[in-house]
Amino acid sequence: MVTVAPDPADPSTLGDGTLSVHVGNSMDPASGAVRTPLTLSNSYALPYDPREVDWTVTDQLLYTRVSGINQLALQRKLAALEHAEDAVVLASGVAATHAVLFTYLNSGDHVVVSREVYEATYNLFVELLPRKYGITADLVDITDLDAVRAAMRPETRFIFTETIANPTTTIADLPALGELARAHGALLVVDATYTPPPRFRALEHGADLVVHSLTKYINGHGDALGGVVVGRTSLIDPIKQQAMVDVGGVISPFNAWLIQRGTSTLPLRLERVIQTAQTVAEWLESDSRIEWVRYVGLDAHPQRHLARQLFPAGATGMLAFAPTGGPDRFNAFVAKLRLIANATSFGHDETLIVHVGASGMRQDLYGEPFTATGTLRLSIGLEDAADLIADLDQALAATEA
Ligand SMILES: *Cc1c(COP(=O)(O)O)cnc(C)c1O
User: Fold this and answer.
1) Ligand 1 and 215: CB distance under 6 A
2) What are the residues whose beta carbons fall under 8 Å from the beta carbon of 52, sequence distance 6 or more?
3) Residue 75: which residues within 8 A CB-CB, separation 6 or more?
4) Ligand 1 center–CA 217 separation, angstroms
5) Deepest in the core among 32, 169, 339, 349, taking most CB within 10 A?
6) Torsion of the alpha carbons at 240, 165, 110 and 126, rounded to the nearest 10
7) CATH assignment of 266-398?
């Protein structure tokens, strides 16, 4: 058997668990501390002649809007986790999405966008970019490849989609979309917040650029906002130059440090939430008080074949469901939950639920069953499956007509 000696400086020699712990963390030579310290400093020492500084280089420690110890450490780890050449971390998931759009779109450009995308993404494409910059978008059913192809134009720069859509769980066929984008000289940009590494790496399935809200699974503890874009160095460098240095939506060193700590347990947490989500989804599916449930691990998922192809070992702890009785019951049901918190965001250690309203523009775009009943989005956390099921069970019992 040939073995490769593990080298923390070369992530390709490390397994997912090892690199999640070791990459971007090193002993501090000044103190001997075994963890990379939190460095709260806006500036770093300049050389004797500051005119020699190359301000276009974003891995030189000069000023924290350009780079900082904790940002660089997190970027190294996230690039390693994604098997990507490079990463840029920013203040939030939305800042990361905006950074891609700001860097790569110009007036007159066109984008093909999944109609099921995060609210701020939707607002950027539908409201802000057309009005402010003359950049237009066609919203499409991302599962209809003919519709995607028909929407492509000579000035189309991107296809933009989520891997698994929030909150509908619609799966995008990334390999097919990647091919389609390339055939038109466009990029496939993927918001993979529902499907974090190491379980799924969108870059290995046809994506050119991948955005994550670090706020969710990757930090995993519900206590810091952040965003990242990963991809080839030739695509990430302009984002650092234009959107990070010149627009300035940088992450704070403290949040970068918190997220770096959170990522140490990312592979373990994902294993746990995927297992628990499967158990909870099967329980919901078997219960007559539930009208429908959507989870990518269920045989009843409308795209089960694509789910098995892209996520053979599971990908997410996010599911969507509706109790019988219609949306009037949803708020009462949520109010009766004792463990599961009524709150937005997801991917935290605690399980969260949110009632996504049945009215409004975006819900109309989701189609059935979401439009008719509205949706409860459930983010499975690290609690015991039996406790979560017992909580759901008692809240269903307490709200029976
Ligand atoms: C939360 C979320 C975002 C935005 O991330 P923030 O960190 O809140 O800015 C973007 N896309 C998806 C799919 C999300 O769930």
Assistant:
1) yes
2) none
3) 24, 86, 87, 88, 89, 228
4) 11
5) 169
6) -100
7) 3.90.1150.10
Q: Which amino acid is at 234?
A: S
Domain ranges across the chain: 13-263, 266-398
pLDDT score of 255 more than 90: yes
Indicate whether residue 103 lines ligand 1 (CB < 6 A): no
Which numeric CATH code is attached to 13-263?
3.40.640.10
Tell me the pLDDT tens digit for each residue of 316-343. 999 999 999 988 899 999 999 999 999 9
- In angstroms, rounded to a whole number, what is the distance separating the alpha carbons of residues 137 and 129? 9
The C-alpha atoms of residue 265 and residue 259 are separated, in whole angstroms, by 11
**Nearest protein Cα to ligand 1, atom 8:** 93
Q: What is the pTM of this model?
A: 0.96
- Count other C-beta atoms under 10 Å from residue 368's C-beta: 8
**Host H or E run for residue 283:** helix 266-286
SS3 236: helix
> Does residue 139 contact residue 114 with C-beta atoms inside 8 Å?
yes
Distance CA 92, CA 83 (A): 21
Joined together, the tokens standing for residue 125 give 């494409």
- Cα separation, 249 vs 102, whole angstroms: 12
Spatial distance between the Cα atoms of 120 and 132, rounded to a whole number of angstroms: 16
Q: Which residue has the tokens 């294993």?
A: 271
With 80 as the cut, is the pLDDT of residue 162 above it?
A: yes
